[in-house]
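Re-running the complex after MR caught last week's input typo. The corrected sequence lines follow. Everything else is unchanged.
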Amino acid sequence: MLRYALRRVLWAIPTLLATSLVLFFVTTLAPDPARDTGDATIEEARRTRFVDLPRFVNTRPQDVVSRASAAVKAVSSGGADEERGARELRRLGGAALPYVLPLLEALPPEGRGRVAVALAPVASRMAIGNAGDLLQPQTAALFWSRFWDDRALDFTRTAVDRAVSRLVEHGTDLRETDMVSLDTYALPEVIRAMTTTSDHVSLERLTRIARHATERGPVLAEDSDATQVRRAVADWQEWWFVHATDYVELDGADRAIAVVTETRYGKWLRRAASGELGVSAIDGEPIADKLRERAPVTLLVCGLAMLLSWSLAVPLGALGAWRQGRAFDWVSSGVLFLLYATPTFAVAEILRRVAAGHALGGGRVWLAVAALALGSIATLSRWQRAAMLDVVRQDFVRTARAKGLPAWRVAVVHALRNALMPTLTLAGLHLPVLLGGAFVVEEVFGLPGLGFETLRAIEAHDAAWLMAVILASAVAVTLGLVASDVAYGALDPRVREVLSRRQDGRAA
Amino acid sequence: MSDEHLPQEPSVVLELSRRKGAAAVRDSLVGAQRVAAPYVTMTRIALARLGRDRLARAGALVLACLALVAVFADLLASDRPIACRWHGVVYVLPNVTHPAALAGVDGAAMQRDRGPGDWAIAPLVAHGPTEVAEPDAMLAPLSPGHPLGTDALGRDLFARVVHGARTALGLGLAASLVLVAIGVALGGLAGFAGGVVDSLVSRAVESLTAIPTLVLVLVVGALVPHPTTATLLWTIALTRWTELARLVRAEVLRGLGEDYATAARALGASPSRVLLRHVMPNAIGPAIVAAAFGVASVVLLEAAVDFLRVGSPDTMASWGEAMGEARASTGAWWLIVFPGAALLATLVSLNLVGEAARDALDPRLRCASSDLGGGVGG
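Corrected-run output:
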């Protein structure tokens, strides 16, 4: 049994991958921000949605080396792109120095001067040199080559790693100033330290360093509370997820992996799998927090509706089939057929109107559950009736009757037990409908669940939330399908055999 | 049946073929079939059974009426006359044939500035579905001018309901045609080809099944820059084919193992011929049933989406949207009752016809159907 369950769970993985492809396609439907306008905010928007990356395979992943050399080339040639290159050099900052400064010697004197001057903002950020020297091509080039001779040893990963852990353990202002002089080169370790440490003062220092180097992002103040801390760290992580390759060199295995990960799909999938779903466009709250906050309401409504509909639908359907053709069957199937055809939103709206004017309070949840359950009862009981009809005609039921068993025993023990099976499998397929219905009733009754929030997100065009909610519901439904299959296998050993045989045959 | 004819047929055909050629052979074959006539096919059984089902007949009748309403919506409610003579020019159905010609001329202007010899045949209700008929009288109750009242924007509800039939049925039909085509093609292919193709299609079916369609439609509608009815159509059609593909695949797998398929193979039929001429026709039944239920589910989905997305810039008249407008107001019962009745009538009829078709096409029920007496539940 355990083997069967495990097999079924593993079997869900390719399905989830296929689902992710579909959902990824849905994300690409959203319009891309305009291309190449040179506007910094639009460029940033393109970066955060990875629209400039290739979709599935990136044969030439960009890293700090390629970006720095491209920027140096643009600046030294002094063409139309000079200003853009200078901006890029300023953005890359200290992280690019190990790759830019050794290049300086090889450049023609004119280009060397231009690049050295373009680095002036970086120097002022690192608080080194004096402004007059740095703006003169000759002296600036000299300054930078001397700087590299002196400081090259500080620009190694191990040195930075040690410096950051020292800062986290015993933070002093002097150590913070040391980190500032490394500029963006220290970012990988700084951001990593933000997630591992929970010490408030260290976080303050780390966010201050990161902000100083990148000229953006939140800084913790002394009096910020737990929520602010979490949000600030989430913001920095999010930013690092998007921009990491600007400050890190990809070599060897990293480069090989980047062929797959540095793509739109790779980035999207990694984000989806890690549960880091970005931040809401409405109020800047992390989407994951919001999901955690809203999902219980939806799950409660769905769960209660499921419970209610199962406990009513199974007896109704079974009794209808048992009394086939009699008055009870006619009335119940007639009513259930009407209910089956009535849309959930209409039922919900009518219930809301009937209840309007009464003080409701917690009653809203029950009304929502009732509205959702009515549709499910109709569907489930019709399935149950059909399944029961199939079973009732079979020989073993006739045998049981012929033995002289009481009718209720034949109906419940012999017939219903077998007739429950098909309904159980179909119940898995009913899950997506139920979830969609929950969205509707939440909106009608104003329950603050996923559906309610989704409609607000639609009004505000909050793409991050929309993607997160559809991902969450797809995953939830897949898990539900797996659970219903496993339950089916647990109840019916024949299915287990058939399934494992079929999948073995397929694997062979 | 016609035992005395059978032994003679082959010789007749052969003789003819020697003398007169292919056309004559075909004629003689047709003739022979006619002599063998009252032969029973599944189609005939199904049609006969469908005709006997009273509820299905009622459902079909309602659907036919709704289809007529949808097709002739412009005759029932429109802000332009059905036919008119305006400043010496005769227009027939001006808003279909010459949408620009009478722009800016509404009913009142037509009364006022009427030239000598001008005339107009007015539609049943002189308001169009998107025309704001009563800017001051939002949510006006029922009146002679507006037999079903007006909605929250002052648009005539009768016109919205009548034109909503066009949206619902048109979208339903179009989407279910596409989804049946995809479902039959992919399901048949998966069952027939097996191996990698089967695995791919099965994974696609499973993964699409796991995505709640209502949520997907809402999200796609919000992400696409300019959502139209076509967006809705394709979103539904491209995700709802899975059930049918599953059915068709099972049917094809079953059919390929049956004796008739083996017999066809033994007679030298190519694999594709076995599939297309012998196995697939058996899968047509489920496809027809799925189409009927597909229309119902698309109509339902469209209504639910428009109900939730009230106030979106989409200008199509829709039953769901009218009902959604009622949410903001506690009165205005007409906004719930009339579109709701139209929606319910459509869904009930579609389900009745679909169920009757399923029962009629189910070969297992062939013997049993006479003594079962199909109840409503089927």
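None of the earlier attempt is carried over here. Chain B has a mean pLDDT of 78. The radius of gyration of chain B is 27 Å.
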